[in-house]
User: Fold these one by one.
Assistant:
Number 1:
Amino acid sequence: MTGDVKRIAVVPGDGIGPEVINEAVGVLERLRETHGVKLELKHFDWGADKFLNEGVTLPQGALEMLSRDFDAVLAGAFGDPRVPSNKHAEDILLGMRRGLDLYINLRPVRLLHARLTPLRDRGPEDIDFVVFRENTEGAYSGAGGFLKKGTPDEIATQEELNTRKGVERIVVAAFEYARRARRRRVTMADKSNVQRFGGDLWQRVFKEVAARYADIEAVHQYVDATAMFMVLNPAQYDVVVTNNLFGDILTDLGAALQGGLGLAASGNIHPGRVSLFEPVHGSAPPLAGKAEANPAGAILSAALMLEYLGHADGASAVEAAVRECVNAGETTRDTGGQLSTAQAGERIRERIK
Ligand code: NAD
Ligand code: IPM
Ligand code: MN
């Protein structure tokens, strides 16, 4: 990262992506005034339309360009019913995650107001943890294939790859975060009772790394139990570290605990390198074009990006503004309000001090 001005590639994508990213960009513009944040934004039209019109998904040289010319990427969502293969999303989103080696998928689960959670008698003090999802390998490696495809004896294999390096760096990232953020406990979730090879590697690495962080409590759970305990006793979690697929599933559950996908934010991070920030939700085709999508997930993702870029004050101001809007009931319908996407974005911007 160079100089004072941070360069952001904005990739709105498909469906509700452009609607929510428009509001997040508005928030970044507001921060130029309130916090003197210096940003240069450049938009890219990568997504389903470009794929259908030009046959291009992630343009050639895009990864090199992002690494060379940008400090961060702010993305909306990728996925379109006209592309049932999901090819463009795989090339663009997984392409950036893998191609830029963004090995940390950081997904906070934080309840802003008791009314938002479907759990009875739980409040913000009970639901406040961060998931460290491995983001470059596991079940997402694309390894596998077909034998006897199209016959009654067809076999499809889908390999899960776990490298020593890949497991170690995400586990270390989780413990480092715990220490920095003054969190007490790191919980590692796997399925090592069944996945005897990958699980064994995760177990060994977790124990080795945990021994270097005597100040942090290290807990292992089988991931099926983690899914249950996230519902029954979410207060036990501070930092959760897990593989790519389990992290994907647990963070949609986490999103539900904090009030829905409309509120959930994420960062795809390789410390010190160009990193990607995006809401956890997808393109939500049923909502697209209706001005109903909640922009908070995208806006909170922009806040994570600001924090990553060294603007912690700006990030906190954005989070506080979102919290105030939630408290005041000034939100879109998914979270009990009456506002359109643009109105909800505007109310958040007005509250940024
Ligand atoms: P989704 O997250 O798009 O939507 C599921 C449901 O959650 C929606 O129908 C809606 O009811 C609700 N929701 C999601 N975002 C919301 C918001 N901002 N405000 C209010 N409600 C919201 O998941 P899906 O329907 O399983 O997937 C749709 C498409 O998006 C698929 O093509 C999928 O592959 C893709 N997808 C992309 C990403 C991504 O780009 N990061 C993530 C998930 C899914
Ligand atoms: C997410 C999404 C993606 C994933 C899909 C769209 C490839 O569900 O970001 O959580 O599985 O990682
Ligand atoms: Mn997901």
Number 2:
Amino acid sequence: MKLEGLHHITMITGDAQKNVEFYADVLGLRLVKKTVNFDAPEAYHLYFGDERGSAGSILTWFEFAGARPGHPGAGMIHTLQLGVASEATLDFWADRLTAKGYASERAGRTLRFQDYDGLQFELVVAEDGNPPLRAEHPDVPGEHAILGLEGARAYGRDHDAEAPLLTQTLGFSSLGGGEYRVDGEERHFHWAYDPATEAGVQGAGTVHHIAWHSRDADHVAWQQRAREAGAHVTPVIDRDYFHSIYFREPRGILFEIATTSPGFAVDEDPAHLGEELRLPKQHEPLRPQLERVLTPVVNPRIAQRERVQS
Ligand code: ZN
């Protein structure tokens, strides 16, 4: 039984419209689902990824409108690494980010930048053989598209002490010095800890949790295995687009394990993902009031399609 690398990473933002503009327009990802937080339905939950919303490409945000900026500290993820095809692509993104008003910094085969909330990213030349997970955007040529997530870095106390929950229970390979790899059948992911002792502040621009990808058939076995290792694991929760379990890893980061199925086309035509507000079944009766309180956000796909047709 192997984890198939990453499923998704979830962050917090204070502004859903800026979130859509940055990820679905500046970075050229596809907004694949516009829904609300299961536990706080007055808050958006927005999902971005490749054309199909494939596991391994998904970044999601809870919007808490007007949330104060946070910052990462011990027990929090601080940097997300997105794959691209070549060094020429790093030049393309340095230019595009500048044109959109965002600074970036080149270091060898990496381009570092922050989003509008201060969340730290690195574009890295992907060399692990991950199948490309591209979205289409009229201003981002296919050869320069972002290709999915390659890795993430977190802060932790005793950052280089090997964690048996990661290696023995979840099957990560330890590379030493706090660096790990997750090797699925198809996809790979780099996971690492950097030293920090001070706590961070959860808020806009910080990561809420990371979800690893399980085959549907293995999901309950992962729950059992994590429980046997002493983790406090939740029951299996139906998240509409996948099934999930949650537990904290030893340094305090919230881990989720999520299934492949049913995926984002379960309640929308694949050609129109993320264009309408979808609500979890139990919150459907709240629709009239949610549509009043949630600031409308427009999926750039709609405007792009109209531009092409006119
Ligand atoms: Zn999640």
Number 3:
Amino acid sequence: MAAATMEKVVNLCKRRGFVFPGSEIYGGLGSSLDYGPLGVELKRNVKDAWWRAVVTGRDDVVGIDAALIMHPAVWEASGHLAGFTDPLVDCRSCKQRFRADDLQGTTCPACGGELTEARQFNLMFKTFVGPMEDTAHVAYLRPETAQGIFVNFRNVVETSRLKIPFGIAQIGKSFRNEITPGNFLFRTREFEQMELEFFVRPGDDDSWFEHWREERLRWYTDLGLSPERLRVRPHGADELAHYAKACCDVEYRFPFGWAELEGIANRTDFDLRRHAEHSGKDLSYFDDERRERFVPYVIEPSAGADRSTLAFLLDAYDEDQVEGEPRIVLRLHPKLAPYKAAVFPLLRKDGQPERARHIYDALRRHFPVDYDQAGSIGKRYRRQDEVGTPFGITVDHQTMQDGTVTLRDRDAMSQVRIAEDRVVEELRARIG
Ligand code: GAP
């Protein structure tokens, strides 16, 4: 298996329409990135797989979709206004700015100049609500989706029949004015999170923490990430966020080293208590079986949609040889692949394109599929391999006689003949 490099994957993403530099015709904007036609499908498949595993596939979790701009009091209560900061230093000579905790020495890594003392820089993006640009109208773009869940805790309890333990999940954009974004999709200023807040009885929190740690790790391997490139790293006491009793990171071995894909935290009753204090509303829970009232503890698996998309791309990237020709192949899990299959007429004559088009139209009602009749069949297979399409359906001379097509498997490189009216069923079985 050929190891992926960031450069190879970034190039493939640009070349094949997965991810483009943001605002490219104007020279780009920092680390902003745009998903292209194939990238949007891949990322949507990642989010759908998460939603199925965490929400619709369970009977104890519901979803919400909260506003990105919330009341500024939310961020006071959550501690983000006071504490969501990174230490920032300026170079007195070249004026560049750096995150102090990224630096080894005390001189500027760009020019060797003298650095200022570190000061705390708040990572939240500020804006104004309405036409008045004054302090009374300041608001923030959310730096995490979690707070949208906590402020809706009461609404969800009152409108659903959920009993503790239960969870509320959300997928959506978050914004952080990162001092040092980079490594492509790994760290950007605008990104998407997939977060679950799972509310439990205090005392049951440790076992639910274990439960979610196992579940979340399994999710990545079920979708094909190499187990040897995944690990769970518990946080040391000095690393814990202000709200957490315990935390561990699911880490992936990226080409630039081991780094966090997802954090799983025991947030205790910190958030609900703080919001209760700041809003004056009762955010406790009444257990009507045990006739007791308590403020639930929260276990939070918090994953990044873009970061996991990057990990799935890197892990899937491979180079091999087919019939003496080099091939780039994305071995994406069929559930994640943007196209599940591609349909090809072997020749552009003898009625083959019409027959292939007919099969394509029928398949399209069931799966995202592509149609390609341009160039040699070998080239067309390679084009699909490079974007991770797991199956190829080829219409040839024999199809016109007996109604069978060849089904090619991207990874096994096997080709079998099956009846054209069995293709949907066969693909369904193979996608899983
Ligand atoms: N609610 C908890 C929370 O937000 P976090 O560890 O700060 O915790 C959770 O973020 C996940 O969000 C990270 O594991 C990562 O996948 C993703 N994430 C955070 N900052 C990011 C950034 N600047 N760019 C891309 N993804 C980011």
